[in-house]
From TrEMBL:
Keywords: Lipid biosynthesis, Lipid metabolism, Magnesium, Membrane, Mitochondrion, Mitochondrion inner membrane, Nucleotidyltransferase, Phospholipid biosynthesis, Phospholipid metabolism, Transferase. The keyword Signal does not apply. Coiled coil: none annotated. It comes from the Eukaryota. It is a peripheral membrane protein. Pathway: Phospholipid metabolism; CDP-diacylglycerol biosynthesis; CDP-diacylglycerol from sn-glycerol 3-phosphate: step 3/3; Lipid metabolism. It catalyses: a 1,2-diacyl-sn-glycero-3-phosphate + CTP + H(+) = a CDP-1,2-diacyl-sn-glycerol + diphosphate. This is Phosphatidate cytidylyltransferase, mitochondrial. Catalyzes the conversion of phosphatidic acid (PA) to CDP-diacylglycerol (CDP-DAG), an essential intermediate in the synthesis of phosphatidylglycerol, cardiolipin and phosphatidylinositol. Its EC number is 2.7.7.41. Its cofactor is Mg(2+). It is an enzyme of class 2 (transferase).
């Protein structure tokens, strides 16, 4: 199964992509400049910055080529060369290097570059849930290579989002409630939702994009054996038995499982992960434990990014994300 792509990329996106080195394994556009958010007009959308992520197999080579083509996109870090830029990309924050406030074809864009391997690690394990979280929501897929492992990781990420959301929702819920839960996963514990960003952002994302969410998740919901999906009524019923919850907990991404086990297992006890998750599955507050584990995962990543951002703000020559 492949991730449903929103194929109407349009001339604008093709023109923008033509400005960059073409050795890209995955490229997508996202955000309020691409998808309508509740309360925004078409005119506002056209003024919003366009956000992109490019996954590349070899960041050093890609940045070398991009510095030749688009040297003005980079901060003064360009003087340090592609190896240093790639090192900053891989060793800090969410393994993404952003160039921002870049004028291209009459629009202002920002674009993040991530290695294909780092992207796959985040999709499979939710190491930071930064790019993986963006891919829980509808995006405009522009380039998708025939890399079978990457395609499998993209689908795995969507399934993980559904599973984590099932654990935090009641036994019966609506499609909209599910999509609100999914869209909010990567914002749990994110300092930006406390300081500075619109707290109604999640509902604004979902409300006007229900059909896009259905396109993204319909096959997964129909194929999942632990849920009854009444698509005509837009309602779902999930297995909340301890056995059902244990199956779901065991399929969660590794980083989230580790966060949950650290919450539940007293220091020094070092019980087996399966034993701890079995205990959580039998807990009436299982969903709250998962929510807390998710908060720990995202807040750790968010704090790392915030510290890096604060340090870079003091240096006017660094592009901010």
């Amino acid at each position: 199964m492949t991730v449903p792509a929103l194929h109407n990329t349009g001339v604008l996106y093709r023109r923008i992509l033509s400005h960059f080195p073409q050795d890209i394994t995955l490229a997508f556009a996202y955000g309020s400049g691409v998808f309508k958010h509740h309360g925004s007009s078409q005119g506002q959308m056209e003024k919003n910055m366009l956000d992109f992520v490019f996954a590349v197999d070899d960041p050093v080579t890609w940045h070398t080529m991009n510095l030749l083509q688009n040297r003005k996109h980079y901060s003064i870090l360009k003087l340090l060369g592609p190896k240093t830029i790639s090192s900053i990309q891989s060793d800090h924050g969410a393994a993404v290097y952003y160039n921002t406030l870049v004028p291209v074809d009459g629009r202002t864009i920002k674009y993040g570059v991530i290695s294909t391997q780092s992207l796959m690690d985040d999709l499979m394990h939710w190491n930071t849930l930064y790019v993986a979280g963006r891919l829980h929501k509808p995006v405009k897929m522009l380039v998708q290579s025939e890399n079978g492992s990457l395609r499998a990781a993209l689908v795995s990420n969507l399934k993980s989002a559904v599973t984590a959301s099932f654990l935090m929702l009641p036994e019966s819920f609506t499609e909209e409630e599910l999509f609100l839960q999914i869209a909010g996963l990567s914002y749990a514990g994110d300092f930006r939702m406390v300081f500075g960003e619109d707290r109604s952002k999640v509902s604004n994302i979902v409300r006007d994009n229900m059909q896009h969410f259905k396109t993204l998740y319909s096959n997964i919901l129909h194929d999942c054996p632990l849920v009854v999906y009444k698509s005509q009524q837009a309602k779902l019923e999930v297995d909340k038995s301890p056995e059902g919850q244990f199956v779901q907990l065991m399929t969660l991404p590794r980083t989230l499982q580790q966060s949950i086990t650290r919450l539940v297992d007293p220091p020094g006890k070092n019980r087996d992960v399966e034993e701890i998750l079995l205990q959580v599955a039998q807990d009436p507050d299982c969903g709250a434990v998962v929510q807390q584990g998710l908060w720990k995962t995202v807040s750790y990543s968010s704090k790392k990014l915030f510290k890096m951002w604060k340090g870079w703000r003091r240096k006017p020559w660094v592009s901010h994300t």
